[in-house]
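Narrative of activities, Objective 1.

The group set out to show that a structural description can be obtained from nothing but a protein's sequence at a throughput compatible with the screening campaign. Below is one input-output pair from the validation batch, recorded exactly as produced.
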Amino acid sequence: MPHQQSKLVELWVFLAEPRARRTLCGRSDLSKHRDLGLLLLRVGIGGMFVAYGMPKLPGGPALWERVGHSSRRVRIGR
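Output recorded for this entry:
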């Protein structure tokens, strides 16, 4: 009887875990895709930074000065 109770406890713990972490061998099904997910996240965020900053580069010194003045208003820089 005690062996059967321990199996029921193991089953209860297994079913109580979130679905993304639930596996029979104790390893997440999604863990093998973690590196790919982090890569996509980094590339996406980096792309957003590039897309946001790119229009400022060809704007020339006049635009850079305006950006610098705006940065000082929010106390970035001197």
